[in-house]
Amino acid sequence: MEEKTLLILWIALAVIFAVAEAATAQIVTLWFVIGAIGAIIANVLHASALVQGIVFVGVSLLTLLVARPYFKRFVKTKIQPTNLDMCIGQTALVTEDIDNTREVGAAKIRGNIWTARSQDGSPIPAGTPVTVVAIEGVKLIVKTN
Q: Which of 16, 49, 91, 98 could connect to 105 by a Cys-Cys bridge, CB 3.0–4.6 Å?
């Protein structure tokens, strides 16, 4: 490729990655912006296309490996609890015999009937109070009290 064409390519990639970075709430493409800047510098120094590509990949990886752990401390990913999370640890009442082998069972919690499965695989008869230990999709995972 012609040197000027590669320069335009690296500048375009740097801009595209910078716009993508600005559009996200996480630090995702910053490494590639820095790698593209490294490739631009290699282009200005008249390096071959192969060397420019190696500089892009190398600088991007190096920046990712060195800077990401540092930046990760400052970017907080907040897990938003849902109403479903409040069911975990609560007591439910088995309304239909729970049998994981036959894939049947239901429990009622907070006025709602859910499909339910036993945490340890043991059958649980209807009318038994149970504790919700997890929610997997639309199933309560329960254990006997």
A: 98
**Alpha-helix runs per DSSP H in the chain:** 3-23, 30-44, 49-72
Q: Which CATH superfamily is domain 84-144 in?
A: Nucleic acid-binding proteins (2.40.50.140)
In 3D, which of 89, 129, 88 has the Cα closest to residue 108? 129
Report the pLDDT averaged over residues 83-106.
90
Q: The pTM is what?
A: 0.51
Q: Where are the domains of the chain?
A: 3-72, 84-144
Q: Is 117 in contact with 69 (CB distance < 8 Å)? A: no
d(CA 15, CA 11): 6
Task: Please give the pLDDT value at position 26.
Answer: 75
DSSP 85: G
